[in-house]
Specification:
Order of helices and strands: HHEEHEEHEHEEHHHHH
CATH topology of the largest domain: CBS-domain
Number of strands: 7
Shape: elongated
Number of domains: 2
CATH architecture of the largest domain: Roll
Largest sheet: 4 strands, mixed
Strand order of the largest sheet: 1-7-6-5
Length: about 260
């Protein structure tokens, strides 16, 4: 139950579409006007590798979007050579394509699977374009969070296996961790491992003691515990002082160390 609670705390970020736009997605995207030459629009999309571009009035109000799919449909419908202006090819159906800044991020997660992209507007009434969200944008944000959780889970599993193989009495684990609620090795968390493994009596009984130095191992375990606490309890991705990719590298290296000495 505790792990589920911690997971929800960490995955609550960002809370709104506006929060997300500050950390990912495309802020203030390029827009086309309806009377723009279609060939010029296509060249811009190709050059900048745009899959879709909002189409706005000269007052800046969203009217639709131009995508490779809408261009293809326009050509098929007219059965003619590609020519004319953006208004001849853009899609005006916006019901499932717009989302406001104050909408919960979960709304985007629920809709992005079928919409492929969402156009962010200041409000669904004013329709001033603020940004874009694509599947890849959301994947990039959440994949690093899930990667951190996965690595921590695997590390804790390896450490529990190492301790379990040493046949340490539960009463001894309780004394070392000062946690009376520990009834089995599976109850140990990342914060408990240092108390157990950084002990002169326990260390020689662990399988890793034959090839690793206790002081160095304790230092690495403390570092991993610190990273684990940042991931579980803090706004990990939002701190300017944290290099999440360096954290991931440290976790990966520590997991590799454990795997090599299991």
């Amino acid at each position: 139950m505790e792990n589920n609670r911690e997971l929800q705390i960490s995955l609550d970020i960002p809370e709104t579409i506006g929060d997300f736009l500050e950390r990912g997605g495309v802020k203030n995207p390029s827009v086309f006007n309806g009377d723009m030459d279609i060939l010029m629009a296509i060249r811009k999309m190709s050059t900048n590798r745009y899959s879709q571009v909002p189409v706005c009035s000269y007052e800046g109000k969203l009217q639709g979007f131009l995508s490779w799919e809408s261009v293809f449909r326009g050509v098929c419908k007219s059965e003619a050579t590609l020519c004319g202006v953006v208004a001849d090819y853009y899609c005006t159906s916006l019901d499932n394509k717009i989302i406001s800044l104050d909408a919960p991020i979960r709304d985007a997660l629920a809709r992005i699977r079928t919409s492929e992209f969402l156009i962010i507007v200041d409000s669904i009434y004013d329709l001033n374009v603020m940004g874009l969200i694509t599947v890849s944008d959301l994947s990039a944000l959440y994949s690093v969070i899930l990667q951190g959780f996965t690595l921590i889970g695997e590390i804790e599993s390896h450490l529990r296996t190492i301790i379990a193989s040493a046949d340490i009495e539960i009463i001894e684990l309780q004394k070392l961790t000062q946690k009376k609620n520990i009834e089995r090795v599976k109850d140990l968390t990342m914060g408990n491992f240092s108390y157990v493994m950084n002990n002169e009596r326990i260390w020689p009984r662990l399988s890793i003691s034959k090839s690793l130095d206790m002081a160095d191992f304790h230092k690495q375990t403390s570092q991993v515990t610190y990273i684990r606490n940042r991931i579980m309890h803090n706004n990990w991705l939002c701190s300017d002082e944290v290099d999440v990719y360096e954290d991931i590298r440290i976790l990966e290296n520590f997991l590799s160390l454990l795997s090599d000495h299991m």
